[in-house]
Amino acid sequence: MVRAVFPGTFDPIHYGHMDIARRAARLFDEVIIAVYNKPLKNLLFTPEERLKLVQQTFYAEPKFTVVGYSGLTVEFCKNVGAQVIIRGLRVFSDFEHEFRMALANHRLYPDIEMIALITSEQHTFLSSSTVREIASLGGDISSMVPLHVADALKKKFSELGDGQSVVPITALRD
C-alpha cells in the first residue's frame, strides 16, 4: 500500500487544492491531507477551523484522511508511514520553491519521494491568498471554493469587521 501526504496550510482550502488531492487519490492507495498548524505566515483561520473546513470537504471520500500536524513534514511522513509527498505546481515560480524543498526533504529523509502535479488549467490563478482577498472585499468566490468554505469566509470577515488588516498585502505561497 502506498500512502501519500498532501501537506499545506489550506487557509482556506479551494478547488485547486481539491483537484490536486483527488488526482493524487487516483495514483495512491491513501492520501493524508495534512493541515499544517504553525506556518510562518499570516493566517485568517485558526488551525482548528482550517482542519474542520478540510474535513468537511472530504468527509465522504474514503481514500482521504485529514489530520493536523506541526513540525517537519518529513517527520510527519515518517510517523504515518508515508512514502510520498504530494505538491501542486501552478506557475513557474512554484517549481523553484518545490524543487528546493524536495531536495531538502530528501536530504532529511531519503526514503520519501516528492510528486508534483501540475494544476489543472482552470485553477492556475487560484491561491488561498487570492481567495481571501476577494472574499474580504465582498467578491464572488463561488467558483473558487465549496459553499461551506465561502460561508466560513463570509462569517469570518463579518466577525472581524471593517478596517481589519487580515489579508496579507504580499501574496505568500500557499
From TrEMBL:
Tree of life domain: Bacteria
This enzyme catalyses: (R)-4'-phosphopantetheine + ATP + H(+) = 3'-dephospho-CoA + diphosphate
Which family, according to the similarity comment?
A: Belongs to the bacterial CoaD family.
Q: Which Pfam families match?
A: CTP_transf_like
* E.C. numbers: 2.7.7.3
Domain (Cytidyltransferase-like) spans 5-133
Q: Name one GO cellular component term.
A: cytoplasm
Taxonomic lineage from the root: Bacteria, Bacillati, Chloroflexota, Anaerolineae, Anaerolineales
Q: Please name the GO terms that the record assigns under molecular function.
A: ATP binding; pantetheine-phosphate adenylyltransferase activity
Cited function: Reversibly transfers an adenylyl group from ATP to 4'-phosphopantetheine, yielding dephospho-CoA (dPCoA) and pyrophosphate.
Where found, per UniProt?
Cytoplasm
Q: Which UniProt keywords apply?
A: ATP-binding, Coenzyme A biosynthesis, Cytoplasm, Magnesium, Nucleotide-binding, Nucleotidyltransferase, Transferase
Q: What InterPro entries does the database record attribute to this sequence?
A: Cyt_trans-like, PPAT, Rossmann-like_a/b/a_fold
Q: Which cofactors?
A: Mg(2+)
Q: In which pathway does it act?
A: Cofactor biosynthesis; coenzyme A biosynthesis; CoA from (R)-pantothenate: step 4/5
What are the binding positions for substrate in this chain?
A: T9, K41, T73, R87
Q: Could you give the subunit structure recorded for this chain?
A: Homohexamer.
Q: Where is this site: Transition state stabilizer?
A: H17
Name of the protein this chain belongs to: Phosphopantetheine adenylyltransferase
* BP GO terms, sorted: coenzyme A biosynthetic process
The residues listed in the UniProt record as binding ATP, with positions renumbered to this chain, are T9, F10, H17, G88, L89, R90, E98, H123, T124, F125, L126, S127, S128, S129
